[in-house]
Fold:
Amino acid sequence: MTLKKPRPQAARFASFSAARSQRGTFPEPVQAAYDRVLKELVERYEVYDGVKQEATANPIRDLQEAIKSEYAKVGFTDSEVSDISQAIQNDLQERHMRAEMKWRMGKEAYDAQYSDEIRLQTAKDALKDARISVAVSTDVLDKIIADGRLKSQFESQTSGGLVAEWARLRVEAIQFGYHPTVEPTKRPIYGYLTSGGKIDEDSLMRISQYGQLQLVLKKDVEARATYTSEDSISFSSLEPAPFGVPSAATSVSPDNFYSLYAEAQIHGGVSLQDVDYATVFVRPADEIDSGQNGVSEEEYEKISAALSRAGIRVVPIRDAEALDVNTGEVKNRYADEVSSAEPAEPTPQLHPQLTPTDDIEEAKATGRPLRQLQRGTF
Structure:
């Protein structure tokens, strides 16, 4: 097989730097207090002549007062301000813990695991030949088909991971700029990035808790998607980046439990029209009964028939097989050749769904990032 040489990924977001001028930021007094707290927390663990430098002040109170004052001015309720304040403090606490870890480990040992270069490489590896997929349980397939779309945790009250609205609400506020009261239907849908351009038994094991059926989304969805190299709710200090843009800030470390998969966040919803095709691992019924992940041949036939009526084909993967996510073809998983899809056409600017707005009512109604909430991710 003759492989096409992919074009440089850098061209995909050619004007990304220009688009960053549109990114969100905390109100100036909040940002200034945030910067003071962060500086204090980091410097608390700087070492000079072998002596740990203790903090000389605790500016957390100033930050809390700035948050309460500034967000009240623009119409946030006490409850909403409380959620915002906690989200910002959670972010700072994680950064504090990393500063302490660096002090305890020593710079050389810390950088060997957590340097910007290593974390950037983690992001590049996650994006290489990746497609965005969403894992769903076959138990809810009929509901998805009836609704014609996927529902957020705020609507379904279910998840293969953590079901905690308060935690997700705070993370989405600081990572994306979602208003605390944004409509549940406008909140992001969570998926994952395929690993190395393929789906096989091993990669499916990493996301098995989320469901047996994998919905591979169309390429045009990528323009309104962000990603983190790890589970976003586990690390509120992660800074999601637009899909296709490598960033060290999307990762904490490649060696922790939450690096089993790279997470994708799709903004603006996911309908069945956004699905390119579906795939599922098919194995003998006796293996399913013994607890192995996948579905039986009989289940596969039912799933295929149901999705076929919705206009979606289902590609089965069986033992010793792997699915090339970019071609939708199944082959022997041990084959040496791996195809690369052509990169998407260059994206001149951020998708409107990812562009911050100053209008609180618009942010509530549409799910667009609110500039005053967003930490400055995009």
Notes: DSSP finds 13 helices and 13 strands in the chain. Residues 234 and 267 are 20 Å apart (CA to CA). The longest strand covers residues 275-281. The longest helix spans residues 78-105.
